[in-house]
């Protein structure tokens, strides 16, 4: 039998090619659409995951002053740096330094996926860059091993870059702005007579040509060489560390405001660890840094928890004096009241008004003459009889009201939270480690309440304890067996996150 060697005709080939082209025209856009949707879902999930970490860490007492803090927290929980760059082309993943949340920009619209938030000015949003942006719309998180070039007109975070290059922040005109700059061994020059600058991290050579006289340059990190000062207000905060002596610093900048806790003649922390950690104030980071700092120098020890009767305005850090032994330290707000020196307790309750939230201004309040609290059978209750006059006298215009309860009060130990539902305007409350019960309707209808730091000994949350607390967005419950009434959080925000810590 003769084998046929006949192939495809030109017509047949043309038909096959045409069919393939039609199928490709139909399928390729669908495939591209599927990939785009997958990338969008990936980005949105990253935003949710990082937000959950930030919210939980804040509820546990942590703060994130720089994007580096947020990136580090995410990395510690399995979210690596590449995830902060959007998978969808032309979309941008942003860290909002004002709201401490992630923001996702898609099609020029800003979406806060996990929490409702008001978008701040663009320069308060940090975006990841590996090359200097032609248009400095957002503040820069530098994800590159190379030097950053060009003049800055927005905030900056050096990330993990340890190259010694010059950062020049210069704005000689335009609307005043308040920026965050974090360096990691770079030089920094600031020439912005109308602006406020908060510096974190480690700066090798610092030159301040001009900053605002009304607000100022805040040093919150480590300065190896403060080389020049021109005009404007400069504040060394409680976390500031200088390699030079106080006399040398004051000779360069005679008007510098030195807050208690600022230290001089300090040794440069190895790998800049201390200066990086100074931008985080969670309890865990403090305890870890305390051990390492003691090995470097006794002058750089982290403050410890005290029982206090004196409360003085020192920005985010405060000096409090133990009423029993008289020992004093600069400390971050704590709900614990045991003196680390003499282990005594006091029954002082601290009511803190934030008058200018961005400036972290706090006021110490003597509440006793107003009779605001009562104690009976291990239960503390709030008395609103003089609350209005108290707030108008000490907290007029306050954006936040926080209450810190002690372990001991009225001659006994506080184990139960009673009626606080008439404490109008309360935004935060910190419970001592002795509290095991939050009573029925304890905080009901407090629409302003947004943060509750619960006790590790907590076992019971009773009926309607947080009824209609519509501003409450996160509750972190301690590990272990805990009884929560079915209506404890009824009529709260639909987006309320109730997190139970693992053992």
Supply database-style keywords:
single chain, 503 residues, alpha/beta, 15-stranded mixed beta sheet, six-stranded mixed beta sheet, 6 helices, flat
Q: What would you report as the Rg, rounded to the nearest angstrom?
A: 28 Å
Secondary structure tally: strands: 32
**Main beta-sheet annotation:** 15 strands, mixed
**Which class do the helix and strand fractions yield?**
alpha/beta
Average pLDDT rating = 78
Number of H- or I-type helical stretches: 6
Helix proportion: 10-25%
Uncertain residue ranges: 280-345, 358-366
Shape: flat
Q: Can you walk me through this structure?
A:
This protein has 503 residues and is of the alpha/beta class. The protein contains six helices and 32 strands. It has helices at 10-59, 67-76, 246-252, 273-277, 283-296, 387-394; strands at 92-96, 101-106, 109-111, 125-129, 139-142, 151-152, 156-157, 166-170, 178-191, 196-210, 217-219, 222-231, 234-236, 241-242, 257-258, 318-321, 328-331, 350-354, 362-363, 373-376, 379-382, 400-404, 408-409, 412-413, 416-417, 428-430, 437-438, 451-453, 460-461, 474-477, 483-484, 497-500. The protein has a 15-stranded mixed β-sheet that branches. A six-stranded mixed β-sheet has the order 20-21-25-27-29-31, with no helix packed on it.
